[in-house]
Amino acid sequence: MSTIFIVGSSSGIGKATAKLFAEKGWTVIATMRSPEKETELTSYQNVFIYPLDVTKPEQISKTVSTVLEKHEVDVLFNNAGYGMKSRFEDMTEETMQKSLNTNLLGMIRVTQKFIPYFKKKKSGLILTTTSLVGEMGLALDGIYAADKWAVTGVCEMLYHELAPFGIQVKIIVPGVVKTGFKMEASAMPGFDQLLKNQTEMLMPDTDNLESPEEVAQDIYKAVTDNDRDRMCYVTGKITKELYEKRQELGDEAFRKYIQARLMKNC
C-alpha cells in the first residue's frame, strides 16, 4: 500500500485529495493547522491526522520526523496556501510576510525535510499545488503572484536537481476552483472595469467552476502517471485554454493578448 503525505488537508483541494486517495486504498497522512477540528477524515481507517502549520519550522520538523518513524512515505503533496487581492502599492508588510511565509517558505521548509528521506530510499514524488498566476502574471494578485512564480521556479529547479536520485518533482496548476479558500482583499479604486474583465476571462460561468473533487482526480493522475518525466499538470478548462494559448503565442504576444482583454472598455 502506498502512502501520501498531504500538507493542507482541512478543506478544499487538500481534503478532496485525502478522501480520494483513501478511497483508492492509499495510506493518507493528512496534516492541518487545527486537527482537533477535523470531523470528516476521522471516519477513514487509513487516514492519519497530524498537526502542521507551515509557518512553524519546529512543528514541521517534529511532525515529519514522527510520521517518517511510523510510515514509509511515497508522495509529498504540498498544498497549503494563502491568497490575496490588492493593488501593488497597497500591500502591507504584514500581508506580504504572511503570504511569502505560507506559499513559498512553507513549501520550501516541508520539502527540505523530505529530500534526505527520499534520497536515502532512491525514490519519491514531490507534488506541489501552484496556480495559473504561477504561469502568467495577472493584475491585482500582489505578492501572491510572486509567491507562485517562485514556487514554480523552485519546483523546476528541483525537477533537475533531484532527478539523479530517482525523485520525481511535479506541479498541479489550478485556476479558479470552487473551494472555501479565502483571498484577503483590499479596496481597489480605479480598477472596477479591469477587475470585471479579468473575472469574466477567468470565470465566464460562475455556476460551473471546477470542483475540488475534479482537481483531486487530476492529482491522482499526476501521482500515478507512468510518464516520470512530465512535470506540469494543468487542471480546469479555462486554465488549460490560457496555458495552451501562451505556449501557442509565445510570451510577448500572449502578454499583449491578455492586456487587450483586460483593458476592454477601460
Secondary structure blueprint with pairings:
Blueprint: E1 3-7, H1 12-23, E2 27-32, E3 47-51, H2 57-70, E4 75-78, E5 83-85, H3 93-121, E6 124-129, H4 142-161, E7 167-174, E8 183-185, H5 192-202, H6 212-224, E9 232-235, H7 237-249, H8 251-262
Parallel strand pairs: 1-2, 1-4, 2-3, 4-6, 5-8, 6-7, 7-9
Helix pairs in contact: 1-6, 2-3, 3-4, 7-8
Task: Describe the protein's architecture and organization.
The chain has helices at 12-23, 57-70, 93-121, 142-161, 192-202, 212-224, 237-249, 251-262; strands spanning 3-7, 27-32, 47-51, 75-78, 83-85, 124-129, 167-174, 183-185, 232-235. It is α/β, with parallel strands linked by helices. The strands form two sheets. It has a seven-stranded parallel sheet, sandwiched between helices. The protein has a two-stranded parallel sheet with strand order 5-8. Helix 2 (57-70) packs parallel to helix 3 (93-121), helix 3 (93-121) runs parallel beside helix 4 (142-161) and helix 7 (237-249) packs across helix 8. The relative contact order is 0.13.
